Amino acid sequence: MNTAYLLTGSNMGDRTGFLSDALQLIREQCGPVPAVSSIYETAAWGKTDQPAFLNQALELHTALNARQLIRRLLKIEKQLGRVRKEKYGPRLIDIDILLFNDEVHHYDLLKLPHPELPNRRFALLPLSEIAAEQLHPVSGKTIRSLLDECPDPLEVKKVS
């Protein structure tokens, strides 16, 4: 069984509803989700002239390998209505794989661990809630340490 840490995000429509629907579909199509963080809100990162995001981290246990998982998650995004138009643009749902076991890979559709994880407070804060002592496979630092050192100035607020 593989352990993956995911980040779901939404900044359009019923944001909380999309996070909830994504969680349900991930459980149904990918495997059990033993840990779920609180929901956090942050201003958009990258392309800032858009609505704020809600984000939530999940721990997933899955029989899928990393490439199978990313394909399944992209399918779930599509099921929920996501249409990919522009990088960092607004989206109904976004599901990222942050960590997959302790694997380090550069596939066409997927880089493991997520290359921007150490620079994104909106990902590190919810992830630290469910996996603070998890080690980053490249830096060897805990998620808590990465959060403490994170250069991202964006405010991240817990909303539920």
- What is the element string, with H for helices and E for strands? EHEEEHEEEHHE
What name goes with the CATH superfamily?
7,8-Dihydro-6-hydroxymethylpterin-pyrophosphokinase HPPK
CATH class: Alpha Beta
Q: Please name the CATH topology.
A: Alpha-Beta Plaits
How would a crystallographer describe the biggest sheet? 6 strands, antiparallel
Percent of sequence in beta strands: 15-25%
Give me the secondary-structure category.
alpha+beta
- Average pLDDT score: 94
| Count of structural domains | 1
Tell me the CATH architecture.
2-Layer Sandwich
**Euclidean distance between termini CA atoms:** 30 Å
Beta strand count: 8
Proportion of residues in helical segments: 25-40%
| CA gyration radius, whole angstroms | 14 Å
Give the overall form: globular
Task: Please outline the helices and strands.
Blueprint: E1 2-10, H1 15-29, E2 35-36, E3 40-42, E4 53-62, H2 66-79, E5 94-100, E6 105-106, E7 111-112, H3 121-131, H4 143-149, E8 156-158
Antiparallel strand pairs: 1-4, 1-5, 2-4, 3-4, 3-8, 6-7
Helix pairs in contact: 1-2, 3-4
